[in-house]
Amino acid sequence: MHAIVGDRIIVQAEVTDRPNRLGTVREVLGTKGAEHYRVDWDDGHESLLYPGPDTRVLPRQRAGEEPTARPAEAPARPVRPDDPVERIMGAPVANVDAHDSLRVTAVSLADAAVGALVVMDQGSPLGMISERDVVHALAADADPEEVQAHNLVGATTVWASPADSISRVAALMRDSEVRHIPLRQEETVVGVASIRDVLRVLLDYAGETHRFG
C-alpha cells in the first residue's frame, strides 16, 4: 500500500459489528516498500500506522465532483511464508496500562474488538495480555478489581521483529503456544501478528503449491 500526505485511510475492523477506523495521513515515514504513516484519526487520536492487510487508501474527491477512483496500482504479489510479517501485521496497536484492573482490561479487549492487548508501563511495552489470560484468571477466582494487567503478563514474552518472516513467526507461535506476537522495532511496538492472519498465508500458499505442483 502507498499513500501520500492528505490521503484518507481506512482500517477495517476485525469483526463485522465494530466500526472501521478512518483517518488522514499527516506524514509519510520509512522507505519505499516499507512505508508507514503518521495519521490523525477521526476519533481525535494520532498514531503511527504500519499498514496491514486490513488497511487501504480511500479514493480522493474534490469539492463539487463526483467520487472518482484512485488510479489503479499494480496488483500486489500474493503474500508468501518467506515474506516479512509486517505485510500482514495488525496496526495501530491496541494497548492497556500496566496498572489497569482486570475489569478495565476486559472492557478494553471488547471495545477494541481484538484478541490481545499490549501492556504498557510508562511508555514501555511489558508484554501482551490475551482474552485467554483474562478467562483463566477469572476462572481461578481472581478479583477483577484488584488484579492488574501487569500481574497477567508472562515472565517471558515472545517478541518478533516486523522484518522476521511469516514462517518464523508461525514457528514462534507453535513453540510458545501463543496466538498473538507483538512486533517490536527498537523499543516501539509497531504491530501485532495474529495466528489467524499467519494461518491464512500458510494455507493459501499450501493450496497454491498443491494446485501448481
Automatic annotation (TrEMBL):
<protein>
    <submittedName>
        <fullName>CBS domain-containing protein</fullName>
    </submittedName>
</protein>
<dbReference type="InterPro" id="IPR051257">
    <property type="entry name" value="Diverse_CBS-Domain"/>
</dbReference>
<keyword id="KW-0129">CBS domain</keyword>
<feature type="region of interest" description="Disordered">
    <location>
        <begin position="51"/>
        <end position="85"/>
    </location>
</feature>
<dbReference type="Pfam" id="PF00571">
    <property type="entry name" value="CBS"/>
</dbReference>
<feature type="domain" description="CBS">
    <location>
        <begin position="153"/>
        <end position="209"/>
    </location>
</feature>
<dbReference type="InterPro" id="IPR046342">
    <property type="entry name" value="CBS_dom_sf"/>
</dbReference>
<dbReference type="InterPro" id="IPR015035">
    <property type="entry name" value="DUF1918"/>
</dbReference>
<dbReference type="InterPro" id="IPR000644">
    <property type="entry name" value="CBS_dom"/>
</dbReference>
<feature type="domain" description="CBS">
    <location>
        <begin position="89"/>
        <end position="145"/>
    </location>
</feature>
<dbReference type="Pfam" id="PF08940">
    <property type="entry name" value="DUF1918"/>
</dbReference>
